[in-house]
């Protein structure tokens, strides 16, 4: 499995929000006007696109993405995608990696909010809204597009003009959950990305993205977690997480699944209730937040659950997760009562 790398030139929304088009969370490519050369499902693969020289199948050169045949009629190709969760979209990545002479000259994105079933495309009465107008594409390149529509959507329609291949589609946004259905006193994972939590910042993400610790389930391997480089100077590594909802933390879980010779020796958490401020200001503030959980010894390849020793800080909105001095963590769970 290829390890997703951090593109330092990518906009902040790619690091801050979850990929609503991630099939591991439930997203699906439902229908495509054509998928002769490569199936639509490959476009949503969470792994980076690859190119395999000399690999062909019955339809021609094998390509890692969605690719339509050369269009000989009027019109354009399209694909309808059901997002993993209804959510507000902040930006997209239209990735044409490895598509050079076969990429679409342009693409646009439409979105709607529909009550269609898991396998159903939105009906004829769906209110499709253009969130990305026709945009010029280049071959073998990431195209980061910011979206400024604050409505929540459930489905996308990806339009290629007139045809071609798209290696990957990433849809960065925040799930819109109905918190009114949560019973008072029940514990919810407020650090879960599917509930709306997101990564604010991390000091190092050399071997694995810090946002991975907010993903559901246990990590499938060592590449499915946050791992920093080996620290050769004093200090420790850290990640700041914005909770899905302000809440009182009652239980903490730190999972080092698959990290054996490279797990952190210890961890701790700080927390605070924050309103306003930029990411840069939060990084500075977080150094002085009170301790939510003091330093705890960690072990390799293990789920660590902490229910005692959690400070009574009241409702908090953000946490700083410290690892000492460096290493890899698979998942972080912060179970609390939403307020």
Folded structure, characterized:
The protein is mainly β. It folds into 2 domains: 13-175, Galactose-binding domain-like (Jelly Rolls, Sandwich); 182-338, Jelly Rolls. The chain has helices spanning 13-16, 279-286; strands at 18-19, 28-32, 56-57, 60-61, 66-67, 77-95, 106-112, 129-136, 142-146, 152-161, 165-166, 168-175, 188-189, 198-202, 226-227, 237-255, 266-272, 291-297, 303-306, 316-324, 328-329, 331-338. Strands 1, 2, 6, 7, 8, 9, 10 and 12 form an 8-stranded antiparallel beta sheet that branches. Strands 13, 14, 16, 17, 18, 19, 20 and 22 form an 8-stranded antiparallel beta sheet that branches. The protein has a two-stranded antiparallel sheet with strand order 3-4. A hairpin with a 2-residue loop joins strand 3 (56-57) and strand 4 (60-61). It is globular, with a radius of gyration of 21 Å. The chain starts with 12 loop residues before the first helix and ends with a strand. The model has no long low-confidence stretch (mean pLDDT 94).
Radius of gyration: 21 Å
Largest sheet features: 8 strands, antiparallel
Provide the β-strand percentage band. 35-45%
Can you tell me the residue ranges where pLDDT is under 50 for at least 5 consecutive residues?
none
CATH superfamily descriptor of the largest domain: Galactose-binding domain-like
Helix and strand topology:
Layout: H1 13-16, E1 18-19, E2 28-32, E3 56-57, E4 60-61, E5 66-67, E6 77-95, E7 106-112, E8 129-136, E9 142-146, E10 152-161, E11 165-166, E12 168-175, E13 188-189, E14 198-202, E15 226-227, E16 237-255, E17 266-272, H2 279-286, E18 291-297, E19 303-306, E20 316-324, E21 328-329, E22 331-338
Antiparallel strand pairs: 1-12, 2-6, 3-4, 5-11, 6-9, 6-10, 6-12, 7-8, 7-10, 13-22, 14-16, 15-21, 16-19, 16-20, 16-22, 17-18, 17-20
């Amino acid at each position: 499995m290829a390890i997703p790398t951090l593109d330092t030139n990518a906009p902040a929304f790619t690091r801050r929000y979850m990929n609503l088009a991630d099939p591991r969370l439930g997203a699906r490519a439902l229908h495509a006007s054509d998928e002769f050369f490569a199936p639509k499902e490959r476009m949503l693969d969470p792994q980076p696109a690859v190119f395999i020289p000399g690999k062909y199948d019955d339809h021609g050169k094998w390509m890692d993405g969605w690719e339509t045949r050369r269009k000989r009629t009027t019109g354009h190709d399209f694909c309808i995608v059901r997002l993993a969760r209804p959510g507000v979209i902040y930006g997209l990545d239209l990735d044409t990696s490895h598509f050079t002479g076969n990429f679409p000259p342009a693409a646009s994105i439409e979105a709607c909010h529909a009550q269609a079933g898991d396998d159903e495309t939105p009906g004829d009465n769906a209110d499709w809204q253009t969130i990305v107008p026709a945009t010029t594409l280049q071959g073998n390149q990431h195209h980061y597009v910011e979206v400024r529509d604050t409505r929540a959507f459930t489905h996308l329609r990806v339009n290629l003009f007139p045809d071609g291949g798209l290696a990957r589609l990433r849809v960065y946004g925040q799930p819109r959950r109905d918190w009114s259905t949560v019973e008072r006193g029940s514990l919810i994972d407020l650090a879960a990305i599917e509930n709306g939590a997101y990564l604010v910042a991390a000091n190092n993400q050399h071997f694995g993205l810090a946002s991975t610790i907010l993903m559901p389930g246990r990590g499938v391997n060592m590449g499915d977690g946050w791992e920093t480089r080996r620290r050769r100077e004093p200090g420790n590594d850290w990640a700041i997480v914005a909770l899905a909802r302000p809440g009182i933390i009652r239980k903490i879980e730190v999972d080092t699944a698959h990290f054996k010779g490279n797990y952190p020796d210890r961890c701790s958490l700080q927390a605070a209730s924050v309103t306003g401020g930029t990411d840069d200001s939060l990084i500075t503030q977080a150094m002085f937040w009170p301790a939510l959980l003091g330093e705890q010894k960690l072990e390799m390849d293990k789920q660590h659950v902490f229910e005692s020793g959690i400070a009574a800080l009241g409702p908090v909105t953000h946490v700083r997760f410290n690892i000492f001095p460096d290493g890899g963590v698979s998942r972080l769970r912060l179970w609390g009562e939403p307020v």
